[in-house]
Amino acid sequence: MSDNKLKYVYFIGIGGIGMSAIARWYKFRGFEVGGYDRTPSPLTAQLEQEGISVHYEDDCSRIPGDVAATLVIYTPAIPADLGELCYVKEHGYKLVKRSMALGEITGGQCCLAVSGTHGKTTTSTLVAHILTESGEGCSAFLGGISKNYGTNLLMSSTPVVVAEADEFDRSFLQLHPDIAVITAMDADHLDIYGDLAHVQEAFLAFAVQVKETIIMKYGLPIRQEQVGARIFTYHFDNPGADFHGSNLRLQPDGHYIFDLVYPGGTLSDIRVGALGWINVENSIAAAAVCLCHGCDGQKVRHAIGSFCGVQRRLDEHVNKPGITYIDDYAHHPAELASAISSLRGISPGRKITGVFQPHLYTRTRDFAPEFAQALSALDSLILLDIYPAREEPIPGVTSEIIFKDVTAPRKMLIRKEELMDVLKKEELDVLATFGAGNIDRFIEPITELLNAR
Question: Quick check: pTM over 0.85?
Fold first, then answer.
């Protein structure tokens, strides 16, 4: 559908982080934008404040009636039998998945994409921040809310676009980036891929589509002869990687300073604005993209220091003597292990209590032993029921299959309705909440509770 015929863009699942960024982009471009989501959230409230109409009942009468002038964008996370989705299919609307819409928007621009089973949101947000701070500018579609800019969409007239390349439902295969990062290729979304081999196959297919340069975590199983783009590797501190950190120093405020060694030389004394060793590694990946893109090294160094991070990524809410509260989106065992080890690094000798809400029955079933192992690194675990998201319950799959194998010194399994009462009675030193479900609804009440102590 050519843009000149198009008047309305309607989103089914508008409250998703990726969907809302695309909705904002169309609104910015002057289209009439609206959509459906299952539940209100802070993000949908913000969309409504920006003049985008959002409703929460499956109601076909809210879909624009002018079929020829309407584009419908949907997320694969929506149930296939949703009334509105069935209606637009039956009535001949132009219907595209979110990933296809993003592919069309980024086509014809210089696209810098960040993929990987974890780390992509922080890394892509940092790439966008470096380009913005350096004065070049970019448009960016982010998988989280940037704390520097308070949004998941940046707009610029510069023909450079930063996109988070999501492997869910093989969405990233709609992108043909100039430069791409691959942060990790762990088994995940096995409800779609079946096994690790098929995950890796999809990442290789994505890598083949990259035009110029691939920035790949050191040790990932993609070889130079398999792809057309040149490969550079990166790593937190392994000197075998093309881009790596050295001379790492932890500051009293929990932030790291490091030197970046890369093929063009060394950038010394980079202060990382976001907390934890994991953000040193994310900074190295983001710096690699920007240096390969042609950014000035000193501007890269400065921007990493002024980066405030992403909401729900090692996100500090309380930090006062005797109590620290951090919230993180970790919902895969490898993410949990990285987040917990980053917390250990910045709070040595302190007692860490973690609240974890598992996300999806299939992921819980597929990774129960790995979740138990990651959570065992806590001093105290409070485990909640599974957040189902798009899934129906699976017989025998409950949080208990993780809980039984956790070896942390203290552990309890509770319903989320009990959480605030439990926290009121707990002796807390460092508290962290983890999960991709609706555990974020507790951030404000927990922050209030701890600030009142």
Answer: yes
